Amino acid sequence: MWLLSGRCESRARLDGKVAIITGANCGIGKFTALDFVRRGARVIIACRDLKKAEQAAADIRNETRNVEGAGHVVVVTLDLASLASVRQCCQNLLRSETYIHILVNNAGVCYSPRAFTEDGFEIHMGVNHLGHFLFTCLLLPRIIHSAPARIVTVASVKNHFARRICFDDLHWEKRRYSSFAAYSESKLANVLFSAELARRLEGTGVTTYSLHPGIVVSEGARHANKTWFPGAKWLFENVLVYVLKTCEQGAQTTIHCAVSEEAGRETGLYYRYLIKIRFSI
Q1: C-alpha span between 17 and 143 (Å, rounded)
Q2: CA separation for the pair 10, 274 (Å, rounded)
Q3: N or C, which end of the chain has less CB nearby within 10 Å?
Q4: Could you tell me which residues come within 8 angstroms of residue 242 by beta carbon, excluding any fewer than 6 positions away?
Q5: pTM score of the predicted model
Q6: Beta-sheet pairing, 72-77 with 42-47
């Protein structure tokens, strides 16, 4: 078990609240959704792979079947690698949801081989930041209307490895491609977006958070053999599993930011292992 694996101790309920979580068909997103349902929320899982999302929803319903006061979970289609899909998903959500109290930008691409989104953006920046940027902005009026509300963005400690975001070469046409550097830049963009959003939303009742969930054993290692070295995926899943966080442990920082009364009194901070850090922009 990871030594720095704190746990969200808040007993806050989410009865009557609506929460949207991207990429919650597996990993820390799925455990975040499970926690929210246990607290009474209506949880919307927004995912590209509907088959996996429906299975995750079924698992959550089964886990919470006998939980008193449990909420419920529904699934919607969202492909963050397609801005058209993002717009369509938002249109559907704005038609179906009168309120949106919590938005968790959780989905992401990690260390993918060189690839591009439907709109021609480098895959890490396109999915991890630009897709979520548009998704958040299109839902923002409804989120403000629902205040008090929270926007939580799952970033990574890798943001520290990006010295800057190369706006003159977002597609990596001038630089030698590095999946590690591309991922790091996208995560820096997540943190900066969350901090600036907090500044612009001051006084609205909407608070924002970005976070590093810890190094988690999840599907994020699926590209490791191609982008790191042959056998890296096996190493993650069979050796490092004993020292890395589980997905349930990794979800705790997200849950803390979304429900904790203490976190609700502040905004624009970056959390790492449940420790808050002010990120200057």
Answers
A1: 12
A2: 12
A3: N
A4: none
A5: 0.89
A6: parallel
Tens digits of residue pLDDT in 235-247: 555 555 545 678 8
* 9 class by beta-carbon count within 10 Å (0-12 exposed, 13-18 middle, 19+ buried): exposed
> In 3-state terms, what secondary structure has residue 36?
helix
pLDDT at 37 over 80: yes
Of the candidates 70, 91, 281, the one whose C-alpha atom is nearest the C-alpha of residue 190 is 281
From the candidates 183, 209, 270, 271, which is the catalytic residue? 183
Q: If we measure between CA atoms, which residue out of 229, 257, 260, 213 comes closest to residue 108?
A: 213
6 contact partners, CB below 8 Å, separation of at least 6:
252, 253, 273, 274
In 3D, which of 15, 7, 54 has the Cα closest to residue 254?
A: 7
* pLDDT confidence of residue 242: 47
pLDDT in tens, 139-162: 999 999 999 999 999 998 767 667
pLDDT score recorded for residue 247: 80
Residues 6+ apart with CB under 8 A from 61: 72, 73
Burial 60-99 (b: 16+ CB within 10 A, else e): beeebeeeeebbebebbebbbbbbebbeebbeebeeebee
pLDDT on residue 18:
98
CB-based contact 29:104 (threshold 8 Å): yes
Is residue 183 among the annotated active site residues? yes
Phi, psi of 44, rounded to the nearest 5 degrees: -105, 115
Give the separation between CA 62 and CA 252, rounded to whole angstroms.
21
Which amino acid type is present at position 5?
A: S
